[in-house]
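Task: sequence in, structure out. Protein: CSEN protein.
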Amino acid sequence: ADSGDAELELSAVRHQPEGLEQLLAQTKFTKTELQSLYRGFKNECPSGLVDEETFKLIYSQFFPQGDASTYAHFLFDAFDADRNGALCFQDFVIGLSVLLRGTVQQKLKWAFDLYDINKDGYITKEEMLEIMKSIYDMMGRCTHPPPRDSAPAEHVELFFQKMDRNGDGVVTFEEFLETCQKDKDIMSSMQIFENAI
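Result:
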């Protein structure tokens, strides 16, 4: 019985992320959830690191009808908090914790950072258009009827009409937060992920 216990303990250690206590403090996941996420992460990425190309490959499997590479690039940047060009388990699980269990304000900050491509604290129409085009590319041929070529630009115009409160051509986090919190559709879409894990 002793050797069985030792084997079980070894297996638990192998499937335990480094800095587990720290991750428990930094995320809203339980120890069991973190171990389970870590197992999945290590299965997909035995090296423990995901570079952008691998991330794109994994992500594009979810959208076979379209081209997800550009959107996956933006998403990768949003997860790569320390900007070192690779996602470690910690980057991944901290981002996931915000998306799945964060407060509304944390989720909105994460979304804002995704749209703020150059990370200068503002969303410009150009940045928003790049993201919108990448989303339309990713959705590909699975939308019926297929979107018009002008659809991403129209989407951006509507976004800015709603968000750019002072009409200065850029959206600050404060404008983004205020508008999103007043918009019932946006708020209900934020709740969708609540019970995903």
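The longest strand covers residues 49-51.
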